[in-house]
Amino acid sequence: MGQISGSSIYNITSFGAIGDGQTVNTGMIAEAVSACFAAGGGTVYVPAGEFLTGSITLKSNVHLYLEAGAVLAFTNDIDEYRIVESRWEGVLRQVYASCIYAEDAENIAITGHGTLQGNGAFWWEAFRKEELSYPRPKLVSFDHCRHVQISGIKLLNSPSWTVHPVCCENVTIHGLTIINPADSPNTDGINPESCRNVRISDSHIDVGDDCIAIKAGTEDTAEHIPCENITITNCTMIHGHGGVVLGSEMSGSIRNVTISNCVFEGTDRGIRFKSRRGRGGVIEDIRVNNIVMKGVICPFILNLYYYFGPRGTDSFVSDKNPHPVTDETPIFRRIHFSHITARDVSAAAGFLYGLAEMYVEDITFAHVDIAMAEHAEAALPAMMAELEPMKQRGFYCSNVRDIRFDHVTVSNHQGPAFYVENGEDVEIVSCRSKKPMNKEEELAVFEHVINKNY
């Protein structure tokens, strides 16, 4: 039993796995993986059928292939998930092993046309009732792995984050379909954390939290490792709290990121940068272009007063007075947006709010067209203490430096198209306000800019 004669393919049914949706196949699949690894590598093959299983651990040079019609359905038996040490919300701690997990492995892959069914409802309910001894499994997570590929498959109902490479290098994520209910807690789509050389493309994501979130650990992580050289392209993102989010876990720094050719629809917020005092780290050298958004609360957020997470509600986080600049002061700089359209925006065209002691700087918006929803409801553009809900506002900027708006159009807004306080070197070039207004209102909008000598 086991290996198909003369090949490097290991069919899990040859190890006794039964695809009836009832038999627990954890041991049989583990045997197939071990045999494949022992032979120097190959493909662990999952044929059509529903195979119930607990956590699966991949090993170096193992390719897990799911045939069309194949489903790996993950059991709700907690005993089928061993305890491992991995990051949870940016901090290294003990957690339940992910449904598919690997650590210190290389040349691993999950591909095919099948489905990973996380059966997350059990875990979501246990989380809400605080019944779990450890944080929930992710659907797929790899720790300290190299040369990783995940492509083609469908991922449903993840217990928590769906795809989470941590401290990995050379990761390709391509052609995924990720679907989690809108009300499922913390079911982010794809979250590379402290990784290097990551390519995410051609995927569809519809989840209960951020669609894609780039992270680099918190101040409570002993080893600060950057997340860098990340490309995101040709993706559609529906619902969720944010389209592409950077932070708030950024203590290791995030740099060299491109986001292009994507569509966001109803993602609460579009491109979102978030951090706070105490986190430290730098987000820098980010390029965002060729994006279409519809039905978002706010297309662009750069918020250094984000208050969620441990110590997020401490008074020093929300204090609008300058604090000393230290290694714990986060920095946002060299971030550039171009050729972006957003329609049916509710709260604000953009929200940029730096720290009193550390302005966000070197930010450009070029060829951007924002139209506010005609019947918008007031909402918070960013999660920030003492911020009141907004409706149909233009760009709201505070504590900013070296900001350029070039060929930016804001339509159907209330108040000024560009509101700036505590700004230095702010340039507004060839921009338009298309809100119907009388001459007095129009003059007031531009006087606000002229009187502050921008």
Task: Explain this structure.
The protein has a single domain (9-451), classed as Single-stranded right-handed beta-helix, Pectin lyase-like (Pectate Lyase C-like, 3 Solenoid), CATH 2.160.20.10. Helices cover 8% and strands 48% of the residues. It has four helices and 34 strands. The chain has helices spanning 26-38, 121-128, 315-318, 439-451, and strands at residues 9-11, 20-24, 42-46, 49-53, 56-57, 62-66, 70-74, 83-88, 91-96, 100-103, 106-112, 115-117, 140-143, 146-151, 154-156, 163-166, 169-174, 177-179, 196-201, 204-207, 212-214, 227-233, 236-239, 242-247, 254-265, 269-274, 282-294, 298-303, 331-345, 348-353, 360-372, 393-411, 418-429, 432-433. The strands form three sheets. The protein has a 28-stranded parallel sheet that branches. A four-stranded parallel sheet has the order 5-10-13-16. A hairpin with a 2-residue loop joins strand 8 and strand 9. The longest helix has 13 residues, at 26-38. The relative contact order is 0.07.
